[in-house]
Amino acid sequence: MKWVFVTPGEIWALLRQTQAFLTDRLDDPDAPRILFVTFVAPLAAINCIAVFVRSLIVDSLLAGFILGIGTFALQLGVWLSLAIILPAIARQFHTTIEDDHSFALATYASVPMWLATILFVIPDDYWLVSLWARLTIFGVSTFGLFILQRGFVVLDVRPDVRTPLLVSIAVAYAAGYALLSMLVGLTAHILLYILT
Amino acid sequence: MTDSSPQSRTDLELAALFSKAWGVFRRQPGALIRGFLAAIAGGVLTLGFAMAPLMVGYIRMLDRASRDETVDVSEVLDGMPTFVPAFLVALITTSAVVIGSIFVVLPGVVVAVVWCFALWFVALAEQAAWPSLRSSWSLVRHNLGNVLLLLLAIALANFIGSLLIVGILVTGPITLLVTTLAFRELSAS
């Protein structure tokens, strides 16, 4: 299939005409490795670059490098975990989501969050602005739930299980994100402590 | 939609597992909490050296409890004859997780996940260290989605338990029971 990098037009189509976009993409979903190269890696890199730039401004090149790489690993880890556990969560509700569909859904649902993480460029020094940035990232990320919900419609998931499925995915996603970000943050700071 | 993924061979129903584990726990909560505390305390007092063998004893105790047998705290010591394989499994896993974590965490997490059932293979299949690590890898590989979801649910339950401080005394044994029941279900398939 298409080894073409994601374009702003595609992102716009996903955000503005979600169901039409998903109908097209979920009919014959890209393989996970294609999604990874063309969609996931470029968009997950936004967070990495934002953290790198912020650390360069307020700290050092080494801190920027370690925290940037750590953030990239975090985004990839969360994406991969979501894509892998989505079919298992679906089976808890006696419904089936195929692996390729799961990877596609996890990718498209993560797009709003990946875009919003550009706000991580804002330094933590001004707590009010920093708080606003994080709340905005959280708020924008919840649009991913809407994308997932539209995806369930396209995949013909039974209407009575859509909401519990969505809630379970949101809880699992939040737990996975919190757990991984804690581990990544801890390791990055230990590495920084050792190296500086 | 049909699902042809390898991990769909066995469907772990988390709600049923937690419900069964809660039923087992309710039958003899005192013994299960005492056993949990004994395994942890024994591990701490021996600076971690006896933690894995005691945990093997505790897993065997939980397995017997899940078959409605009456258990006693002294059964935690049943794991001591497996000291060598249990200790090696813990040593290899911990070292690999620490080394893997240096490379931006993910390799460490992967190692922790793929070898998460190794101690259960030592306890319930009486395997040696290296075969138990290989068996765990094989089991997780074929049930990746189920296992990740299980670990996430366990982490969440224990997090909630630790918020209530003494809650971990309840969620600890229950989540280990859930893991034991899941191990039985997955390895049977």
Mean pLDDT of chain A: 92
Number of domains of chain A: 1
Content of β-strand of chain A = under 5%
- Which structural class do the helices and strands of chain B define? mainly alpha
Q: How many helical elements of chain A?
A: 8
The most extensive interface between chains reads:
A-B, 34 and 28 residues
Largest sheet of chain A: none
**How many structural domains are formed by the residues of chain B?**
1
Unreliable stretches of chain A: none
Helices and strands of chain A: which structural class?
Answer: mainly alpha
Overall pLDDT metric of chain B? 90
- Give the number of DSSP strands of chain B: 0
The total of beta strands of chain A comes to 0
Rounded Rg of chain B = 16 Å
Shape designation of chain A? globular
Rg calculated over all Cα atoms of chain A: 17 Å
Helix content of chain A: over 70%
* Sheet with the most strands, sense and barrel status of chain B: none
Poorly predicted ranges of chain B: 1-8
Describe this structure in words.
In chain A, 82% of the residues lie in helices and 0% in strands. Chain A contains eight helices and no strands. Chain A starts with 7 loop residues before the first helix and ends with a helix. The relative contact order of chain A is 0.14. Chain A has 196 residues and is mainly α. The model of chain A has no long low-confidence stretch (mean pLDDT 92). Chain A has helices at 8-16, 18-27, 32-58, 61-92, 99-116, 127-141, 143-154, 159-195. Chain B has 189 residues and is mainly α. Chain B has one domain. Helices cover 73% and strands 0% of the residues of chain B. Chain B has helices at residues 14-27, 29-45, 51-66, 83-102, 106-114, 118-124, 129-142, 144-163, 168-188. The longest helix of chain B has 21 residues, at 168-188. Chain B is globular. The chains are: A mainly alpha (196), B mainly alpha (189). Chain A binds chain B through residues 69-70, 72-74, 76-77, 81, 84-89, 91-92, 96-99, 101, 155-156, 171-172, 175-176, 179-180, 183-184, 187-188, 191, and chain B through 1-5, 7-8, 11-15, 101-102, 104-106, 108-109, 144-146, 148-149, 152, 155-156, 159.
